[in-house]
Amino acid sequence: MAKTELKTNQKTQVEDRSSLKGTLASVFLLGLFIIVSWVSVYYLFVDRF
Predict the structure, then answer these.
(1) Tens digit of pLDDT for each residue in 7-17?
(2) Is residue 23 within a helix (H) or strand (E), and if so which, with residue range?
């Protein structure tokens, strides 16, 4: 049987130059929008009683 040889000397380089600052900002803005919506609906509910 033939032996299969694995080359372990190869290094895989991954270039990660993407910045996640925009993603973080949009997640914070979406969370703020959801919190403001819930609080406004809550105060609207409380104001009616």
Answers:
(1) 667 676 766 67
(2) helix 21-47
